[in-house]
Structures are given as C-alpha cells and as structure tokens.
Amino acid sequence: xxxxxxxxxxxxxxxxxxxxxxxxxxxxxxxxxxxxxxxxxxxxxxxxxxxxxxxxxxxxxxxxxxxxxxxxxxxxxxxxxxxxxxxxxxxxxxxxxxxxxxxxxxxxxxxxxxxxxxxxxxxxxxxxxxxxxxxxxxxxxxxxxxxxxxxxxxxxxxxxxxxxxxxxxxxxxxxxxxxxxxxxxxxxxxxxxxxxxxxxxxxxxxxxxxxxxxxxxxxxxxxxxxxxxxxxxxxxxxxxxxxxxxxxxxxxxxxxxxxxxxxxxxxxxxxxxxxxxxxxxxxxxxxxxxxxxxxxxxxxxxxxxxxxxxxxxxxxxxxxxxxxxxxxxxxxxxxxxxxxxxxxxxxxxxxxxxxxxxxxxxxxxxxxxxxxxxxxxxxxxxxxxxxxxxxxxxxxxxxxxxxxxxxxxxxxxxxxxxxxxxxxxxxxxxxxxxxxxxxxxxxxxxxxxxxxxxx
Amino acid sequence: xxxxxxxxxxxxxxxxxxxxxxxxxxxxxxxxxxxxxxxxxxxxxxxxxxxxxxxxxxxxxxxxxxxxxxxxxxxxxxxxxxxxxxxxxxxxxxxxxxxxxxxxxxxxxxxxxxxxxxxxxxxxxxxxxxxxxxxxxxxxxxxxxxxxxxxxxxxxxxxxxxxxxxxxxxxxxxxxxxxxxxxxxxxxxxxxxxxxxxxxxxxxxxxxxxxxxxxxxxxxxxxxxxxxxxxxxxxxxxxxxxxxxxxxxxxxxxxxxxxxxxxxxxxxxxxxxxxxxxxxxxxxxxxx
Amino acid sequence: xxxxxxxxxxxxxxxxxxxxxxxxxxxxxxxxxxxxxxxxxxxxxxxxxxxxxxxxxxxxxxxxxxxxxxxxxxxxxxxxxxxxxxxxxxxxxxxxxxxxxxxxxxxxxxxxxxxxxxxxxxxxxxxxxxxxxxxxxxxxxxxxxxxxxxxxxxxxxxxxxxxxxxxxxxxxxxxxxxxxxxxxxxxxxxxxxxxxxxxxxxxxxxxxxxxxxxxxxxxxxxxxxxxxxxxxxxxxxxxxxxxxxxxxxxxxxxxxxxxxxxxxxxxxxxxxxxx
Lengths: 455, 288, 275
Hints:
Largest sheet of chain C: none
Largest sheet of chain A: 6 strands, mixed
Structural class of chain C: mainly alpha
CATH architecture of the largest domain in chain A: 3-Layer(aba) Sandwich
Number of strands of chain A: 13
Shape of chain A: globular
Strand content of chain A: 5-15%
Strand content of chain C: under 5%
Structural class of chain A: alpha/beta
Number of domains of chain C: 1
Number of helices of chain A: 17
Radius of gyration of chain C: 23 Å
Order of helices and strands of chain C: HHHHHHHHHHHHH
Helix content of chain A: 40-55%
Oligomer: heterotrimer
Shape of chain C: globular
Distance between the termini of chain C: 38 Å
Number of domains of chain A: 2
C-alpha cells in the first residue's frame, strides 16, 4: 500500500515536471509559430488580398460605439477587410489587458501606446509608420513622442489640452473679466475676488450650489502628479523625449508648482481641512463640482465636455480655458499634447499590416473618417487638412484659440520614469496636503526618486 | 489494488489535471519569472538570480508597509466578520419573524461583484457620509477615505458588510447541528442564556470556526477588487494591500519579475499564517 | 410566556433594523438608478421623484449592455462551468475521501492550499500558458473556472462526504455496481444539499467575475455582463445613471437563483463545514 502511494506521488511529480518541460519548450517555439501564420498569408498574393481581418484593441469606452460605426463605414469602402474592435472598459487597466492580450498570443493588429516609455517597452512589436501619407500632414513636433531616429511608431489619436476650465457665466455674473487673466498674479486676484463674492453670498440666488472657487482632486494622482507638474517641468524639458532621456530632474520651478497646488487647495471647499482633498476624485470635481455649479474653476482638460454635457448642457456650453500660469516662467499658456497613439503590430501578417495602415489612413484623411474624428469622437485633429471640420465644442475651440495665439506648452509627462509622476510625486503632494511633510520634502524626495528610477 | 488505482485516477484525474494546468503550472511559471528581469512583454527574460528578492526588502519599504497594513486589516476583519456573522446566525435562528427574508437580506451583499461594489461604497463614503454628517453635525463623518485611518475602516466596513452574511450561513449550519436535547437539558438545570451560549453553543460551533477563520483570513489577505475600487491604495499608497501592491509593481512600474518575487513571498507568508491557524484551531477543537 | 414574546419582538425589531442597514447601499443603488445623472450628483439621497425621475436609464442600459446577448453569454458560461465543476469535483472529492492514502491526503491539501494563491500573481503566466494551449474564449474560460473553482468545491464536498456512512455504497458494490454506478446512483443524490451550496457559491463568483473574462475573451459577441458593465465606467467619466441601472438589471438573475436555492444552502453547509 505504502509503496503504491509512493509511486502515485512520483507520477504526479512527473506530470508536473513534464508539463513544465512542455511550457519551456513552447516558449522557444514561439518564433516558428509566428512564421507559420505569416507563410499562410504569404500564400495569398498581395495585389489581390483575400479577406483580411484586423483587430483593434483600444480602451476609450467613450468612443467604442462610434469607432464601431466608423469601422462599418470603412468596410463598405474596403469590402475585403473586416475590422474587429475590442474595447477594454474600467479605465486604467489597459496596460494590464494589453500585456495579457499579447501574452495569450492573440495579438491585436492595432493597439494604443502612450509616449516614449511605451515605445521603448513595445519596440519589438510596433511597426514603422514613417511611410504613411498622414505623416506629411502632422502638425510640427506632434510626432516627437513616438519618433525614434527616422522611424515613427504611432499615429496620434488627437490633441488634448488642459488647464483651468472655468464657468463663463459665473465669471460674468461676478463681474470678472476673464480676458484680463494673463499671468499668475492676475489669476490669483480674480480668484480672491470671486471667493469674496461667494463667501458673501452674492451669487447664492443664481447659483445655489456654489460653495468655492476650485475643487482639487488630489485623489487622482494623474491630475496633480502628471498634469499640474507637467506645466512646471515643461519649463525644464522641451519635449517628452527630453524628459525621457533625462537622468535627473532639477525642479527649477518647484515653487511655481507649490503656487498652483496651494491656490487650488486654499480656495477649495476643504481649505481648512486640506487632507480631505485626498478623497476628492474626478467625479466629485467634475460631475459633482463643475457640472452642478458647485465650483467655478477646475484644473481639467477638454475631455470633461462630454461628461458635463450629460449632466447640464447649459453649463457645458459655457466653459472655457484660463491660462495655466507657471509663476516666474511661461504664465499665459496651456499645456497641449497627444494623449495616445495608434500603433500597428509588426508581427501581424503583411496583409493585416497593410489593412491596418489603410484603416488608420482612411480614418484620418478621408472625408467620412474626418467626420467621425471631429463630430463623433469629438477629437481635436492632430493633423492638417481638417479645415472643413471645425471643432464642435467650446473647450476644443478654446484650445485652438490658445494654439493659434502660440500660447501652448508641451506635454512632457509621458517621458517621466514609469510610475514616477503618479506614485511618487502625486503621493508626495497628497502627503503635503495631509500636513505630513513640507513642500521642500515633496521636491527633494521626487528628485531623488527620479534618479533612482532612471538607473 | 490495480483496479482501485484505476478508479482513483478516473475520478480524481480530470479535475487534478485541470487544476495542475490552470493553477499549479502558472504558479510555477510565476516562481520561475521571479528569478528574472521579466517586463511582461518579452518572453525570454534574463535570469538574474535572487536580485528581485533582495530588491523587495532593500528598497521595498512599500512592500513591508503593505504587509503591515494587510495584516492589520486581516486581523481586524477576521474578528468583525466572524463576530457579526455569528451574531447574525444567533439572531436568525432565534425564532424571529420573517427569519427567511432576513437571512436573504444579510446574504445579499455577496451577490454583487467586488469592483462595482467598491465604486458604490466609495460614493457612499465620500458623499452620503458627508451629507449625513453635515445634517447631523457629526464631524467624524467628513472626509472619509481621505486619511489612512478612514481608508482602513472603510475597507473593514465594506468587507464586513459583504462577508458576514456568508459566515452567518456557515454558523447557522453549525447551530442547527447542535442537538436540541442538550439545550433542553441545560434549561431544565436552570442555565441562563449566557451560560447556554458559552457552555454549549460556542464549544459546539468551534469546528465551524475553523473554516470560518480560514475563509475570512484567506479572503482578507487576498483582497484586491474592493481595495482597487474603494481607495485605490490612497492616500499616498498607505491603504495599498498586498495584492494591489503586487499588481501595481507589475503593471505600473513594469517590474514583473519583482512583482512575481513579491507574490512568492506573499504566498509563503499567507500559507504559514493560515496553516498555523488551522493547526491551532484543530488542536483547540480536539481539546474542547 | 409574555417575557418570551417580548424577547421575540425585540429580536425581530433588531433583525429588521440590521436588515435595513445591510440593504441601505443596495437601496441607494436602486433609487439612483431611476434618476438623471444630475439628480444623482445633486443629492444622492433624494428619492427618484420629480424632475430627476428618469426610468429611461433602464432602456438605454439594456441596449448598451446588449443585454440579451450578454445575458446569454453569462448564463451559458456560468451554467456550464458550474455543472462541470459539480460533476468533476464531487466525484473527485468522493474518491479522495474514500481512498485512505498519503497521496490522497496530499492531493486534498494541494487543492486546499491553492485557495491561498492570489489570482493577480498568476494571471500573466496563466494567460500566456492558456494561449499556448489554445484555451481562450468561452471554452478556455470554462476550463479555467474548473481549475480555480475546484479548491473550494472540493473542500466543501470533502467535508460533507466524510459524514456519509459507507454502508450503502458497500451494499451496492456487493450488488455488482461499478464505481460509476455507485457514485452516480447512490452517492450523488445524497449530496444534493452541498451541491446546491457549491452551485450557488460558484455561480456568484463566475457570474460577477470581471478580470478573467476580460483577459481571455476577445470577441465582442462573447462579452459577459460584467465586461459590458464596465463600458459605463470609462477612463474619465463614469456614467452612474446607466451604470446603476445596469447593475440592478444584472443582479436580478443571481438574486432569483439565490432565492430559489437558498433553502438548500444551509442544509448543505450544515453537514459540509463541520468535519
């Protein structure tokens, strides 16, 4: 009896070992598997490609339905191509889902990458798109985040801008002229004036919910750690690539960052209990803040438009941007950049790669595609040639006005070391608001961690 | 003998093989990756020995902090969930009106998925609490989830709310197993309710306690969904529990090798804790 | 007698108050699911009457969830997985109980020990490995659910079967039944209460599971309800009005199932958890 059970045990161990061996073997066999599928595709002559299926793996649930509609239109123009769209919901899990997707071997043809760090991480997978027709149409500098040498690895989704989004009618009713706000000093003066009127109850009748000038969502590390800090570090780095290559950060304008944080915190509903800002999230700031006119200004981008519109269309149509002033440096501009890119998987079959390039090109250069970009996705186009498609919403218009006046600064946060902006700097700012550390510590810890993460 | 071996594998084989493929092999693969510099994309990472393990303890103050936080959380919820679960079980078996409906109500929180539940509770803590606090003038209801303490208690409340109904079911089962004659005999001897509870009920329910403790302990240690959607680890990662810490090491910092090393350490420690718990509970059972 | 009645009333009141506390979050979900988004954000505690009453949420959520299709997928995956889990784990647990050997004990503890493995730590290797084996999409998902669901199910069955007297099985064996017949005709019917417990615990988990389907299902037409639910929770904006309506719709099937099965659960655990 004892003997047999020992045998049984051994056989189990054997099964496990065998299975592991199987796995190890498979890991190396990956290459041939890929070429095999390629061969299959090669069998089909390129001039007349048979049916081709491309898969798009993307994360913007807001545009999932419209993107699907666009794909159906594309299929009408290119009947041999089928476009399958996979959308990952839930917000910030895209990185995890994308890695899992690739790990499973079911690799998508088109996927999303951010900036230089993603290009670096995915450099074995992304195809060079520098030969595409839309490259010529790109606004200057807009491709810098995905350019390595002569190669271009991504098509920008769109242009986004952020800054201080303000409610024009509250300003008008408070008698404040927003056009006079051109630097930090004038912004601060306007904020103080508005705050005085709110506290005095002057605006109570028309805006019963109004309780403060700002709300600062310190819980959302990306707002403070990436966006607020970006304005300040854009004075130090000219582009995300420069930030990506920097071994150290100086924080020359660290005090300007403090000024931006303090201003928002001091004129928020939690000015007397700043630690409570650490529980303020995006919904509180936007949906339960700006949209119901509980606050007059928030630091956010043009992406808030859709959400605000879903709550109160009048408020949404009365929004605009104020400058996002970096005290002592550029004070009259807003940060404008590219949040995401479309990348093509170079391990897909040739026919798939061609179809994928064709789709992206069609989406951004054909009239049908352009209409989707501007009027369905509500994107600010990253390319020239959209003159017939004026932007649809007031925030997009406001950004274009800033851009045309040359009052923009770049997005460099895509070049921060992985995790630095949100998990290091964002957390330090939370500690600062909770009164656990001084501002000097925020800066010194962040400087040290940058250097460590760059090693 | 040969025959019984055949039957053994026919019955146990399918699920065992599935289990080995689905659970054991990925675990072993994870252990292998913990010795590499895997980034989650490249499938042939370099072997770097124990570096990841050293790195965890060297520069991983965050891992240790998560550990302490998770341990505190588990210790607290083990008490609250089992106490409340047992209390509920006593209540609903105590001849009350609408007993069945009440049972269903207590069990209902189990029927919703963790992620969405976390979103809903976040809404409740940050809005309903401050609203109610404002109306009643209770200052401690303000600013929930903004501090480590309220984040901790928020997680405890959600977890207790969700799991105590589950434990209640287990304790109901145990309570109903107690022979009526024992209780009746005690009543004839003039025992008070308290004496009946401590002298008969609790000792006889002790075996159920073993599984109750095991389930709460392992669930609390592994908690992920509610942690992610309720506090997201904030403020300043001070409420980040182990599973979330591991997840973020992998997907935020792209250090998959190190994340796997953390997972291995985590698994070993949890195994030691729960096995110790089972060992002692079992011994206690025998003594009782 | 009067004292006893008093006590009963007090306990009932306590139970009702506690029920109200337990239900309050779900009540908030329900009331807000009937409001416009503005109504939700202006005052989450207000009841859905007046200008913010907006039952159309349900119609839109129903459409956007592609509910019938998602429901079919969720149902199919949950039911098949649960049936597979029940068949394989009950028979395995029976054999593990009835075979007294070190190996049998070892296997049992291996299953129990795996309860401690956090899913997030095996997730990437798992997906990679499943991809190599070609076990993706609903078929692979069901296979994985059997693997992950086996631990708790085997523990529960194991505990229950221990308390079943062997005599019946022995009598049947003498009558010439083989092991399959013994298990299927004699043992399995006795397991009904614990089977219901295993069924409901696994259904709850599989019905609500988000992460695993998200990782392995890669066709929109195979999306389960939780996957579609997350379309209301985007990178920035969360469409709470639709999300809460969707949540309510998606809870209904599992609640119905629970109410139908609940009387068996206690019975099952009664003998199951107590070894």
